[in-house]
Specification:
2 domains; about 250 residues; OB fold (Dihydrolipoamide Acetyltransferase, E2P); 5-stranded antiparallel β-sheet; elongated; single chain; Rossmann fold; alpha/beta
Length: about 250
């Protein structure tokens, strides 16, 4: 299993530090955020992929339980709390474990192992191109989603993940941009940057080194600009003699 991306949410500084210390002793775990409120946690969840959530229940403004109820796509979640009376309500929300503070490292590790098993069932993968060649499928939050090539605006690389930005929404799945580049039809899609693949027909304009797709602005690597202009607009790009086509920014 690849690295598990973890968000820690607790209004107690010592509790956050203890969890982070435990996590550092377990290979394959990475803390991508450490926040002290549910509202701050929502900002992180809306900005990047999170696999596993350690979530306190009793917090000001918005409790961990109520925060979880607001999520359309819920990460695998472990509650950490000083109050045992919320256990039944927690498992009604499909959390994988419920840690009552203070808990030892062994109990923490047991919860992490449960989370790993749940993540194995959820792990998203991009399927090979279909015989029809007009869509691909991706596993997102345990669901198999059909992504039509006509609907894809562009794809953004996020380390081990990719984000499909489509006409009807955004979908994050576990895949490398390099592998996806080999799967998408070259006649319709183009790698323009180390972190971006665009649908050529969806590009509306280019200004400097920025492509415009609807309201989105996509950077173009300096060494790829001539190739991109030729491939998308069928024009030669003046003003650049650089022949290097590496993704350099």
């Amino acid at each position: 299993m690849s690295t598990i991306r973890i968000l820690l949410v607790d209004d107690e500084y010592l509790a956050l530090n203890l969890l982070e210390t435990f996590i550092q002793d377990v290979p394959g775990l990475e803390v991508v955020g450490k926040v002290k409120s549910a509202m701050a946690a929502l900002e992180v969840l809306n900005s990047q992929p999170v696999d596993l959530l350690f979530l306190d229940i009793q917090m000001p403004t918005l409790s961990g339980v109520n925060m979880l109820k607001t999520l359309q796509h819920q990460p695998v979640t472990i509650f950490t709390t000083a109050y045992s009376e919320y256990a039944i309500q927690a498992f009604d929300l499909n959390v994988v474990d419920y840690l009552v503070k203070p808990f030892p490292f062994e109990r923490f590790l047991q919860a992490v192992n449960k989370a790993k098993e749940q993540l194995k069932l959820r792990r998203p993968t991009v399927a090979p191109q279909t015989a029809q060649g007009d869509f691909l499928t991706a596993k997102v939050d345990g669901k198999i989603v059909k992504l039509s090539y006509d609907d894809i605006l562009f794809v953004e690389g996020l380390k081990e993940y990719v984000r499909f930005v489509c006409k009807n929404g955004k979908y994050v799945t576990l895949e490398s941009l390099k592998n996806l580049e080999e799967q998408l039809p070259a006649g319709r899609f183009l790698r323009v940057h180390k972190s971006y693949i665009v649908s050529k027909e969806k590009v509306q304009s280019i200004l400097g080194n920025m492509l415009e797709i609807q309201t989105h602005k996509i950077p173009v690597s300096r060494g790829k600009r001539d190739e991109v202009v030729q491939a998308i607009f069928n024009l030669s790009s003046p003003g650049s003699s650089k022949d290097d086509t590496d993704f350099d920014d």
